[in-house]
Amino acid sequence: MLRGLYTAGAGMIAQQRRQELLTNNLANANTPGFKADQGSFRSFPNQLIQAMGTDHRRTAGSNHVGELTTGVYMQERTPNFRQGDVYETFQTTDVALLQGALPIGDDGQQASLFYTVENNNGEVRYTRNGNFTIDGAGYLTNSQGNYVLGNNGERLNVGNGDIAINANGEIYDNNEQLLGQINVAMVLDPAQLVKEGNGLLRYDGENDVPSAIGNGDVTFQLQQGFLERSNVDTAQTMTEMMTALRTFEANQRVLQAYDRSLERTVNEVGKIG
């Protein structure tokens, strides 16, 4: 009976974590470039039950009763890097990154493209949020003040005037003078990216992260005055949240039933009249 308590409890914990994942997705449905998380569930190993203390055999030469499941857990949460829709903002510092043809790795996973930025500790991070701005010193930054990096890893000083950004990420001023080029990094194994908050991703893989600029096997374009929406499907997310809630409640009722059975066992079974 205690195994049943643990199984129901594990189911409740798994659905609670699933609900937290879906809630975070829904909260970021309007965050530019946000990539929805998806959870992977896995069951604990099943236990084989055998009859003990009896010579009776259910089948010839075997006293196996059957298998007992021992619960489920959320193994991992991984971002879905599917391209989001694009909408027009008319802001010259907003840039949407549109992916085209991309290589596919040995594991069958498609590569993904990202902007590169420098965080407050001087470390390189990756993002799909193209909601950029220009700081007081004329540097191109994201909305959190992180410097946007160029194709040579340098900070991009674009001045304080109007700028034009072409499809390759090249930045020009009013005099059509080239000020720099926004780097577009290609992550071949995006499953190695870890979310750090504020739209930033940390790469923990062993492979290098090359630039997609000048790579003939990659097609992409940048659109000035546009932003990429999050790829969260709000209707599907709401449906999955309701399903997670119903499953949580079902496990809760099972747990309560076991609790009532244990209460009767303790208070009534074996009672001496």
From TrEMBL:
It is found in: Bacterial flagellum basal body. The keyword Cytoplasm does not apply. The keyword RNA-binding does not apply. Residues 5-35 form the Flagellar basal body rod protein N-terminal domain. InterPro entries: Flag_bb_rod_N, Flagellar_basal_body_rod_CS, Flagellar_FlgE/F/G, Flg_bb/hook_C_dom, LlgE_F_G-like_D1. Belongs to the flagella basal body rod proteins family. This is Flagellar hook-basal body protein. It comes from Evansella tamaricis.
